[in-house]
Specification:
Shape: globular
Oligomer: single chain
Number of strands: 5
Largest sheet: 5 strands, parallel
Helix content: 40-55%
Structural class: alpha/beta
Number of helices: 7
């Protein structure tokens, strides 16, 4: 199964990708981790494509992140396209909360570049509130027109959690029908 997860910064795409990957036992690729360097700047396209091309050749993957300029065919190739269309202030709150949590606990985020310090900059603040919104609204219109048959749009965390709960139950029922052991995922 091939799954693409896109949407607004701070909406919970990476968390959802990791949870879904654990349920389905699929590899998860966080595009921020391969597209950005330790200073949160874009890496050269050639370097990114070298990694992403081998991932896209796989039968199964979950890709978390936007980066439409990098291998846009992954949207055509995916079986499911999740789009996180959350309110800007919910995204901002989540990003600030994430920043505080990871800084306080000195944790490394799996979805971030290696050796990078988690920080909330004015540029990122503006991206969440304004700049990123302009690009994403247009992208969502395109997705609705082109991928409506495989597009699932989440507008809030409640929808995400309900979907995952339903998915986990369905997955466990299938495993039980096959006589496999379930582990709560």
């Amino acid at each position: 199964m091939k799954i693409q997860i896109a949407g607004f910064s701070g909406s919970g795409k990476s968390t959802f990708a990791s949870r879904l990957g654990a349920i389905l036992n699929l590899p998860v690729i966080h595009l921020d981790a391969i597209c950005l360097d330790a200073k949160w700047k874009n890496k050269p396209n050639e370097e990114i494509l070298a990694i992403l091309t081998s991932v896209l050749r796989s039968e199964d993957w979950i890709i978390d992140g936007n980066y439409r300029r990098i291998s846009p065919n992954r949207y055509d190739d995916c079986d499911l396209l999740f789009y996180f269309n959350f309110n800007r202030f919910v995204c901002l709150y989540s990003a600030i909360k994430r920043n505080k949590t990871y800084r306080k606990e000195h944790k490394k985020r799996a979805d971030a570049p290696l050796n990078v310090e988690n920080k909330m900059t004015f540029e990122f603040f503006m991206w969440i509130i304004y700049e990123g919104r302009k690009k994403q609204r247009q992208k969502l219109r395109e997705f609705k027109n082109k991928y409506n048959d495989k597009l699932i749009i989440f507008k809030n965390r409640s929808q995400v959690n309900k979907y995952l709960e339903t998915f986990i139950n369905l997955h466990n029922n299938i495993k039980e029908d096959k006589g496999e052991e379930t582990n709560g995922n």
